[in-house]
UniProtKB/TrEMBL annotation:
<keyword id="KW-0159">Chromosome partition</keyword>
<dbReference type="Pfam" id="PF03568">
    <property type="entry name" value="Separin_C"/>
</dbReference>
<dbReference type="GO" id="GO:0004197">
    <property type="term" value="F:cysteine-type endopeptidase activity"/>
</dbReference>
<dbReference type="GO" id="GO:0006508">
    <property type="term" value="P:proteolysis"/>
</dbReference>
<protein>
    <recommendedName>
        <fullName>separase</fullName>
        <ecNumber>3.4.22.49</ecNumber>
    </recommendedName>
</protein>
<keyword id="KW-0378">Hydrolase</keyword>
<dbReference type="InterPro" id="IPR030397">
    <property type="entry name" value="SEPARIN_core_dom"/>
</dbReference>
<dbReference type="GO" id="GO:0072686">
    <property type="term" value="C:mitotic spindle"/>
</dbReference>
<dbReference type="GO" id="GO:0005737">
    <property type="term" value="C:cytoplasm"/>
</dbReference>
<dbReference type="GO" id="GO:0005634">
    <property type="term" value="C:nucleus"/>
</dbReference>
<dbReference type="GO" id="GO:0044732">
    <property type="term" value="C:mitotic spindle pole body"/>
</dbReference>
<feature type="domain" description="Peptidase C50">
    <location>
        <begin position="463"/>
        <end position="560"/>
    </location>
</feature>
<dbReference type="GO" id="GO:0051307">
    <property type="term" value="P:meiotic chromosome separation"/>
</dbReference>
<dbReference type="InterPro" id="IPR005314">
    <property type="entry name" value="Peptidase_C50"/>
</dbReference>
Length: 653
């Protein structure tokens, strides 16, 4: 009954109900675990929530089902909106009589209308136009038809949620969902990789550690602090115009205030990682190649500590509790320099694991301080004696619940400097991979030196096919001065654009449709120059960099899903969008963007070399890696450096 109702409301119900159902299901499984009643279908799920152990294959069913529901619940509105957007990309998608009421089946699936009498004639006219424009448009229409049919026929029921979509991803990609419950007291973090067992952690946001107040950070407190920092930053940015250049004291005071806000934001992000994630931050770590022997040695050392220090020695009772390999590998990434409280998180996790599987633990007799020292010693030995190789081109995709989308997760310590981008859901990620395959079929870009994963793990971008908009409002003189000579030089290799004047809406739309890369240096996300629905209805969209203030922010809509410029580009098929979460100062963000351009070799000489020489894909730099490294180019490494984020998949230059 539960799954049949879920299937119905995902079709035509309120989005908030779907999101609440996912959270409620997770909490129920958590409570069952704490009572020692896993239930017939949730055993593996519960084990992964509070104490992962090795289980039979059938137990992974509920885990996969819950993870799939959590992922889907973050983008229900966008799933519905993409159907409307596709209808307007090609007229052939809505040639039926629009005066007829829409019809649906019992499960909410739409039924097709009978075509209007003159629709066949209109269809033949449209198809003839496509043939005249070439096979490129025809095949692009087929791609969007495929996406349209996929979402039209998609039903989120118990059966469809059984299949893990992560297995279709490249091996070096990781997808992490971050989801908060309705009462804002519990954070769920799920991790999945191709051909790896998924992990789900249920993390209380307050009251899970003993000790001082520095271990507690409420969800609302964190968001309020972030909003206050951004508000004060905005006020400081506006007041800068009143600071005279020759007034050294006023300038010094202004920079002192900015530096204090920068430090305040850094400390907030460190607190979010420490208080909310703790030892479980390793779920967000880069994947590594770790041999079975390495894991066995680490398991043996840890078992000695726990059996010696934690478990009551009852000769009549033998414990078969064994930490799951996926969790063991996850915790092996914990730094030996981490805080004591994080090692205590790991300790109490293991305590719960033993107790929940029937092994008595004399908690009052546990010498926590000694065990923490022993764990740190094991981690130090593991780190120094083991050569762990990071997986090349590893990349993390964040699927964020609407409640946590305003947080710059990319700048918490464990993710700072790593290749991280945001996606609405795994389905949208798979759509982008299909779009990459379509691009490859239209060009000869897939060289024989590329592996299969390399062919689909990046969006093809020709750096010569670029359009720029520099200082369209005319009031960003510093930005124009910094980049005008550069964009003029780039015209020699094929770039086009406008400087010092606003583009027409049609100019921007043509650039997004026909170019591979669009770079915008102006206020906001260019919303004042092109309407959002015009972007949504594009059949193709270039990779885009919007360097304006709050260009990547998604507006809060209460209990409804957020809306904003990034989603308009996602619905247009944009593979990669670089944008800012909040307002930034022009000079500092100019340093950031210059750092990005330097990292991806956007110079005339490099582009000419790109034309002449055969490329070695392994030496290319990802735009997302370039953004991560450019954070350190700013004077305010958090107040400005944490603002830019990336939506979508990487492209490499």
């Amino acid at each position: 009954m539960f799954w049949s109702n879920i299937s119905a409301i995902t079709r035509r119900g309120r989005v908030s109900h779907i999101r609440d159902s996912a959270g409620s299901l997770a909490l129920i499984r958590t409570f069952q675990t704490s009572l020692g009643k896993p239930g017939s279908t949730g055993h593996s799920l519960i084990a992964n929530l509070l104490g992962n152990v090795d289980e039979s294959c059938s137990n992974s069913v509920s885990l996969t089902r819950f993870r799939s529901l959590t992922d889907a619940s973050t983008s229900i509105t966008l799933r519905r909106e993409i159907l409307e957007a596709i209808q307007n990309k090609f007229p052939i998608f809505h040639l039926s009589d629009d005066l007829q009421w829409p019809r649906i089946t019992n499960n909410g699936s739409p039924l097709a209308h009978s075509p209007e009498r003159n629709s066949k004639r209109l269809q033949s006219v449209y198809e003839s136009d496509l043939e005249e424009s070439g096979n490129n448009d025809t095949s692009l229409k087929r791609y969007w038809e495929h996406i349209r049919e996929k979402y039209h026929s998609q039903v989120l029921d118990a059966k469809s949620l059984l299949h893990s979509k992560a297995d279709h991803l490249p091996r070096h990609w990781t997808v992490v969902n971050i989801f908060v419950t309705e009462d804002k007291n519990t954070l769920f973090v799920t991790r999945q990789r191709a051909r790896h067992e998924p992990l789900i952690f249920s993390l209380p946001l307050q009251g899970h550690r003993e000790g001082g107040d520095d271990s507690h950070l409420g969800f609302s407190d964190a968001l309020d602090e972030l909003k206050e920092i951004v508000r004060l930053s905005d006020e400081g940015t506006k007041s800068a115009v009143n600071v005279k250049i020759d007034d050294k004291k006023a300038r010094a005071a202004w920079w002192t205030d900015r530096a204090a806000l920068d430090k305040r934001l850094q400390e907030l992000l460190e607190s979010i990682e420490f208080c909310w994630l703790g030892a479980f931050k390793t779920a967000l770590s880069q994947p590594v190649n770790m041999s079975t022997d390495v894991l066995l040695r680490l398991r043996s050392r840890l078992d000695k500590i726990f059996k010696r220090s934690l478990v009551s020695h009852d000769k009549k009772r033998k414990t078969s509790t064994r930490l799951n390999d996926a969790l063991l590998e996850c915790f092996s990434m914990l730094s030996p320099k981490c805080r004591d409280e994080e090692l205590e998180d790991f300790l109490y996790f293991i305590l719960d694991l033993y107790q929940l599987h029937g092994t008595p633990v004399a908690i009052a007799e546990v010498d926590v301080d000694q065990v923490v020292l022993d764990l740190r010693s094991v981690l130090e030995e593991h780190a120094t004696s083991t050569e762990v190789m990071s997986i090349q081109d590893s990349h993390l995709f964040l699927v964020l619940d609407k409640n946590v989308q305003g947080i710059p997760w990319e700048s918490i310590p464990v993710l700072r400097g790593q290749s991280v981008s945001r996606i609405p859901s795994i389905d949208f990620l798979l759509d982008r991979m299909d779009l990459v395959k379509w691009h490859r079929t239209q060009s000869s870009d897939a060289s024989p030196s590329h592996t299969d994963d390399q062919v689909i793990d990046r969006s093809p971008v020709d750096p010569r096919s670029t359009y720029y908009v520099l200082n369209p409002s005319g009031d960003l003189a510093g930005t124009e001065k910094r980049f005008k000579a550069w964009v003029n030089d780039m015209r020699a290799v094929g770039w086009e654009g406008v400087v010092g004047k606003p583009p027409s809406e049609q100019q921007l739309l043509d650039a997004l449709l026909r170019k591979d890369l669009v770079i915008y240096f102006g206020h906001g996300g260019a919303e004042q120059y092109v309407r959002s629905h015009k972007i949504r209805h594009l059949p193709r969209c270039a990779a885009t960099m919007l360097w304006g203030c709050s260009s990547g922010a998604l507006k809060e809509m209460g209990e409804f899903d957020r809306i904003g410029t990034p989603y308009n580009y996602m619905l247009a098929g944009c593979p990669t969008l670089v944008a800012n979460l909040w307002d930034v100062t022009d000079r500092d963000i100019d340093k950031f963007s210059q750092g990005v351009f330097d990292q991806i070799h956007l110079t005339p000489d490099d582009i000419r070399r790109h034309e002449r020489e055969s490329r070695d894909a392994s030496k290319d730099t990802s735009i997302i890696t370039a953004v991560a490294k450019a954070r350190e180019h700013c004077k305010l490494k958090y107040l400005t450096g944490a603002a830019p984020v990336v939506y979508g998949i990487p492209f490499y230059l």
